[in-house]
Amino acid sequence: MADREQPYDPYIPSGGQPQGGAGNGNHRTAALQAEIDSTVGIMRDNINKVSERGARLDSLQDKTDNLAQSAQGFRRGANRVRKQMWWKDMKMRMWLIVGIIVLLAIIIIPTVVATSKK
Fold it and tell me: Mean per-residue pLDDT for 65-84?
């Protein structure tokens, strides 16, 4: 096993053993790797937040669609009730007009008949 070659590491000089200055380089590499890992973690968190936001936006879109359908149904119902009330109002006006005509006929016909007999 001693004749087995070590894997290549660019921070270890070609002699195979790290020297005095190379240990400092490994420390810097470890610090950079830690910073990269931290950045990757932050990016993963951001991606998770964006996907959660997308899910919330989808839910909000569904709620908006349901509200729009409900509003359209309400509008149709309101129009139907408005037309029913208009017809009810018209019927009431017609009855009032017929009542007034009958009342005038009851008053006018006897006076015309009494006047023509004289």
Answer: 96
Look at the block and give the residue holding tokens 């200055």.
21
Q: In the numeric block, which tokens belong to residue 76?
A: 């149709």
H helix runs in the chain, sequence order = 20-117
Give dist(CA 16, CA 11) in Å, integer: 10
- For Cα atoms 49, 50, 51, give the angle at the middle one, nearest 5 degrees: 90
Query: Vertex 65, ends 62 and 70: CA angle to 5°?
Result: 125
**Is pLDDT of 93 > 90?**
yes
For 31-57, write each residue's pLDDT tens digit: 899 999 999 999 999 999 998 998 898
Whether this model's pTM surpasses 0.85: no
CA distance 106 to 100: 10
Rounded distance, CA 9 to CA 22, Å?
11
**Residue written as tokens 């959660």?**
52
Q: How far is Cα 26 from Cα 9, in angstroms, rounded to an integer?
A: 11
